[in-house]
Amino acid sequence: MPAGTYMFSMKSKPFIAGSVLKIVSQDGSICKHLSTNRLDGNPSISEVTVYFNKYGDSHFLSKVKGRSLGAEVARSRAEKQLEGTYSKEKVSSRPTPKSKPQRSGK
Description:
Blueprint: E1 6-12, E2 18-25, E3 31-40, E4 49-55, E5 58-65, E6 69-73, H1 77-83, E7 89-93
Antiparallel strand pairs: 1-2, 2-3, 3-6, 4-5, 4-7, 5-6
């Protein structure tokens, strides 16, 4: 998926360890569903944090953690192939603050 702004939502079923993470681009043109392992949330954080594994110039979604829930994404075939070639770096990203509309003064 290309870099951009995405919305995340999770669907989980009672008594099942895994969940489905839905990722949708801001304009709705891209939508992906990923099988994940559920993680506990972190009540001390105020915003969702997205974690990536980085190999060279390639980034792979690793985890999404919020206040109440989290999800860990299984490594893809492409990520596993790059593991042997590059050393892994962990990278995290938080949402950028939305700019407030400017009011014109009269």
